[in-house]
From TrEMBL:
InterPro entries: UDP-GalPyranose_mutase_C. Keywords: Plasmid. It comes from Paracoccus methylovorus. SUPFAM superfamilies: FAD-linked reductases, C-terminal domain (SSF54373), Nucleotide-binding domain (SSF51971). PANTHER family: UDP-GALACTOPYRANOSE MUTASE. Pfam families: GLF (PF03275), NAD_binding_8 (PF13450). The keyword Lipid biosynthesis does not apply. This is UDP-galactopyranose mutase. Residues 147-346 form the UDP-galactopyranose mutase C-terminal domain. Transmembrane segments: none annotated.
Amino acid sequence: MNILLVGAGLSGAVIGRQLAEAGHDCRIIDSRPHIGGNCHTQRDPETGVMLHLYGPHIFHTDDEGVWAYVNRHADFVPFQNRVKTTSQGAVYSLPVNLHTINQFFGTTLRPDEARAFIESKADNSIADPETFEEQALRFVGPELYEAFFKGYTEKQWGCSPRELPASILKRLPVRFNYDDNYFFHRFQGMPRDGYTAMIEDILDHPRITVELETSYDPAMADDADHVFWSGPLDGFFGYSLGRLGYRTLDFERFTYQGDYQGCAVMNYGDRDVPWTRITEHKHFSPWESHEGSPCYREYSREAGPKDIPYYPIRLVEEKSLLTQYIDLARSQEKVTFVGRLGTYRYLDMDVTIREALDTAGVFLGAEKAGTAV
Ligand code: UDP
């Protein structure tokens, strides 16, 4: 079969590879001049530091199959993300853990005491939190919410945490011990030569062709037996029902000589600091040594029609438009919608790869191919 995959990010590459190995010819197009989508990495010509050009990406998973898959395509170096946050004139450890709690409240609580203390601050009248704010008030109480989540989230999402789903905050744990590993997964690491090299390896198959700086044209689908779409879900339909909301990011670079902040990611919880975080990329490759240190202040704003979409917003009230697009997508027999943008979900890399492997499996296994979203 002739398969067209729109988007050369993780979804397109993984599905393309699975289908190519099964004997299908895969044409992968991408409008950008590089593969890898927003996982794209590139060495900085000035300092030699490996940059995550679209913001920090740390690989973490509990999925043994996905971990084995990425290790077949890249050499992974163990890496644990330890994020700090600057708030109200002090630096704290994230995710909220026993150190954060004791430092913030000036206490010396032990785990059980801290749990009881935070529980005493929680709003127990919220039985089933639906919004980000309800989730925060229910699980960390008002003080920690104000210091670490409210301002950051307003900057990151451009709206009140009352309008955002609880699922966004559920990404972050609260720990009653001193574990400050940002992620809880068993397998965590960084590809030694960056994500783009890993995706290049996935794409390295004689039945795969990649065309960069190539925009999708509906006529291309005529030559294909099936299309996998990893562009924006609403974009496939020409935004005919209206636009789903996305956040985009702006990065402001400065180069420091030495070590600027002592960690890869420093968040800024205060509302009056305009950036959400500063990423110092050389800390993502601690096995390398560079004197120059590129740092990026990150600003979030609503994506306009020409901006790169990063985060699907999924406002609580936006669900009905999404449902309509999902219905449209389901009616497309020849097209499968995949990935973060194609399914309009906040997906981590490991989930994206798992879903891509499963989608390819369903496609290859099913007589009637092409189950949408
Ligand atoms: N968040 C926050 N304060 C922080 C870090 C995260 O309020 O210091 C909230 C924010 O709404 C963010 C969400 O938690 O969008 C998920 O955080 P995560 O670190 O997973 O975001 P990502 O790295 O994917 O941008």
